[in-house]
Amino acid sequence: GRHGRREGRRGGDPARLARQERGGVAARRDGAAHRPEPPTWESLVRVLGPVEIVRRDHSEITFRKSKSVELLCWLAYHRERPTVSGARTALWEVDVRDATFHNVLSELRRGFSAVGLPEVVGRANKQRLFLDERVSTDGDLLRRALIDADRLPPREAAESLCGVLGVVRGLPFASADYAWADAEGITSTLYWMVTRSIDRVVELVDAQLADELSGVSGDEREQLREQIDAGPRRVAAREKLLAAADVRHTTATDDVRK
């Protein structure tokens, strides 16, 4: 269908994510200071829910060809050696004319150029494609937050993960039927990252609570521990996150709910 550039929808705010990344907090691992690397992305490919491409200011970048959006998603998850033949095989069940692929790629380049991001995607040579690091994905942000969660203090790690989980709007690639994403295990990996992040937040909150309880003595600590173990707020928090992610009816989800 025909698309135009318009303001982003309500939901997780990429601009907030950018500020969160820029404000990365120092932590220690093996005695060495760690600070998350500053972000380099200028455009975010959102696949944790309906597929859309947004800028830091939350405005949406749109394209006239749906195949151009699919090509961008494929490139975002095949950065190491993205070839023309690989992209054509993944996106089309039958062989397509060179002109067709050229038009899809040209529309992708046009869409980025229209919002001041030229040369972020294209051909490196006749057989190789490229996607600049200024284009990232919400899956990349979630993966980075999971890694950083092992190096940050519990409260800061939980806040970081919750910030990224705020952009989850549904099942991976919810608005698209990308056979290659399912076949290559990309969809299931993204799903696992969401459920793992939810579980990790609960673990981090538990660790923070345990740390705070260590400063409480006697009967008061036992009463507080009983209230925490009853866990209505923890269960409600998990359910809220799961509902936001729209994940249901799997063993992984059942484990998180328990």
Number of strands: 9
Oligomer: single chain
Low-confidence stretches: 1-11, 22-38, 244-258
Overall residue-averaged pLDDT value? 78
Number of helices: 11
Helix content: 40-55%
Question: What percentage of amino acids are in beta strands?
Answer: 5-15%
Largest sheet descriptor: 5 strands, mixed
C-alpha end-to-end distance: 43 Å
Order of helices and strands: EHEEEEEHHHEEEHHHHHHH
What would you call the shape? elongated
Can you list the strand order of the major beta sheet? 1-6-5-4-9
Question: Over the alpha carbons, how many angstroms does the gyration radius reach?
Answer: 21 Å
SS-based structural class?
A: alpha+beta
How is this structure best summarized?
The protein is of the alpha+beta class. 53% of the residues lie in helices and 11% in strands. The strands form three sheets. The chain has a five-stranded mixed β-sheet. A two-stranded antiparallel sheet has the order 2-3. A two-stranded antiparallel sheet has the order 7-8.
